[in-house]
DNA sequence: TCCCACACGAGAGTGAAGAATCACTATCAT
DNA sequence: ATGATAGTGATTCTTCACTCTCGTGTGGGA
């Protein structure tokens, strides 16, 4: 568990706060390297794990993708992945009645929903081509 | 692409038809070995890939899990994963209006939904403890 | 029935995510 | 300001899912 307030850990926290969306370890490395030049991937893994352990980050698992991480404590929500750039965004809200889809005998405790399509940035680009 | 009708390929197809739910490569190996004793994992991978290529199987991706496979050609549906035994089951139907969750500027093309909880078998076991 | 290309099984190899190691560096209580 | 020690960065190691290799066996056309 990392407890000191290092430049690296700050840069990693800043990356999440400025991105405002779930980030993969590779994205964290790219973004945080803008602030701390020689930042290594091992430090990203260490600090992300540490931030998850202390509850500041939550893990976001999407189908067929390595885990992403987002700032924790937010209301129940789901995610959107752009099929063009691969970036993941937050959605707000949810739909009631999802547990009705389960057949009798099944107990539903939680659910995950992911929408796929084009993000605003990629949709604009495609229209311009 | 495997074109011959071998005992191994039949056993693998049978496993999917008898299970009636998405199977991982490990589950396919277990189930098909009941019919063809010395079945090897490489043969499972070869045949599953072949069955996907010829359109008989479809790939099912769940968050944080290696891919599973199911018989293709079914109506739009989603999946349920038991948090106790890890097995995946089919759900029937869907909910309208999911694309409403996306903010303006996002184009929604498809979605994935996964419910988590207890399957009938595991729920009964737990109650019995 | 014969034959051989194709498929099989066992095990080694590969690639990627992430953890461990280690010499060096930076933080922070004193 | 100092120094104990936690953290860093480069690298190696581990793990796991999956693929390849190669010698053996078999499906199915002639």
Q: How many angstroms separate the termini of chain A?
A: 48 Å
CATH architecture level-2 label of the largest domain in chain A? Orthogonal Bundle
Number of helices of chain A: 4
How much helix, percentage-wise, in residues of chain A? 25-40%
Radius of gyration of chain A, CA atoms, in whole angstroms: 17 Å
Write the H/E string of chain A, N to C: HHHEEEEEH
Q: Give the assembly state of these chains.
A: homodimer
Strand order of the largest sheet of chain A: 4-3-5
Uncertain segments of chain A are none
- The CATH superfamily of the largest domain in chain A is Winged helix-like DNA-binding domain superfamily/Winged helix DNA-binding domain
CATH topology of the largest domain in chain A: Arc Repressor Mutant, subunit A
Tell me, briefly, the overall form of chain A. Answer: globular
Largest sheet of chain A: 3 strands, mixed
What do the pLDDT scores of chain A average to?
A: 94
Tell me the number of structural domains of chain A. 2
Largest interface: A-B, 38 and 37 residues
Number of strands of chain A: 5
């Amino acid at each position: 568990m990392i407890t000191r307030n290092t430049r690296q850990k700050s840069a990693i926290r800043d990356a999440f706060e400025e991105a405002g969306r779930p980030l993969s370890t590779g994205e964290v490395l790219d973004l945080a390297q803008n602030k701390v030049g020689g930042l290594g991937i091992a430090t990203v893994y260490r600090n992300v794990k540490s931030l998850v352990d202390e509850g500041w980050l939550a893990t976001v698992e999407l189908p067929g993708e390595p885990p992403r991480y987002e700032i924790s404590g937010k209301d129940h929500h789901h995610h959107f992945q752009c099929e063009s750039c691969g970036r993941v965004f937050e959605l707000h809200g949810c739909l009631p009645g999802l547990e009705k889809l389960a057949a009798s005998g099944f107990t539903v405790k939680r659910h995950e929903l992911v929408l796929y399509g084009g993000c605003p940035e990629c949709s604009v680009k495609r229209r311009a081509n």
